[in-house]
Design a protein that fits this description.
Elements (H helix, E strand, L loop, with lengths): L1 H12 L5 H15 L15 E11 L2 H12 L2 E3 L7 E4 L2 E7 L7 E9 L2 H4 L3 H7 L5 E3 L3 E5 L5 E5 L4
Length: 160
């Protein structure tokens, strides 16, 4: 438990999660340590999205987009790897990333953090199959599907 808390605090201090995400993660960890098991989700019952985890934004030059949002709106750039970064603002994250083929900028997916992901994730692959949804990803971190209009929808735990 101490290692989990230390890792969560480190992620918070490095800007990988917001204060709200830290508190939610600590609450879930405390409940798990106390032996409070979440109720099993029935087949067909929807997951509960807590909040938008991040918005993925494909752009031609992520550095220009990064600098624009940092300079104009004071967003904090984190996890910059030379091809993409995370722009943290409040409890939100915008992820500008370089497009492979150029073209107009577009939001390619929105990721949601799900309540009790660790307890729910094992049955999600079967549920996606039951619903006839094509998906990518794994229960380890998250799954991605398309909504009826073709928008990417990612859902999973805190770290996706």
């Amino acid at each position: 438990m101490e290692t989990l808390i230390a890792n969560l605090l480190q992620d918070f201090e490095q800007g990988k999660m917001s204060r709200r995400q830290l508190i939610q993660s600590l609450s879930i960890a405390a409940a798990a340590a106390a032996g409070v098991a979440p109720a099993a989700r029935a087949a067909g019952k929807p997951l509960e999205a807590l909040y938008v985890n991040h918005i993925s934004y494909q752009v031609n030059d992520y550095t220009k987009v990064r600098d624009f949002y940092v300079d104009l709106l004071g967003m904090k750039a984190t996890e910059d790897n030379g091809k993409q970064c995370r722009l943290v603002f409040g409890n939100n994250i915008l992820v500008p990333r370089n497009r492979a083929n150029g073209g107009p900028a577009k939001v390619d997916h929105i990721a949601y953090t799900v309540t009790n992901w660790d307890a729910e994730k094992e049955g999600m692959e079967e549920e996606l199959k039951r619903r006839g949804l094509k998906y990518t990803g794994s229960a380890k971190t998250s799954f991605q599907v398309k909504d009826p209009e073709g928008m990417g929808v990612q859902f999973g735990g805190l770290h996706q």
